[in-house]
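Take a careful look at the protein record below. Let me know whether the structure tokens fit the sequence:
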Amino acid sequence: MPLLTRLCLRAGLAWLVIALAAGLWLAVSPMGAPPGLRPTWIHLITVGWITNLIFGVAHWMFPRASREQPRGQAFWGWVAFGGLNVGLLLRALAESFPGPSAPAMLEAAAVFQLGAGVAFAIHIWPRLTVR
């Protein structure tokens, strides 16, 4: 299994555990939890856990790009991995612990996550061409 795949899956599992802990916090102490924790919890499950899982498995299992480079240019896969997880961290911090810099952090998070999606598409697209 490629290193990028292993790291995507490990990051996804880490976000899953963090999201489940946040969900438990919401269930046990809804009034004591930060007000932005509910959307953060949902985002960590859907984008953190599921998207990291999809990125990692797609990098590993999609058709070969070529015999020389079966997984294509790994650079774009790494950009997608980094952008996705930096964006998740920024969003989780901005929504869970809002402050004066929260709006700028949310904008940066959105840019990182959009960039991750574009980088992933660039990375995986050549492996989807008809031969």
Summary: The mean pLDDT is 89.
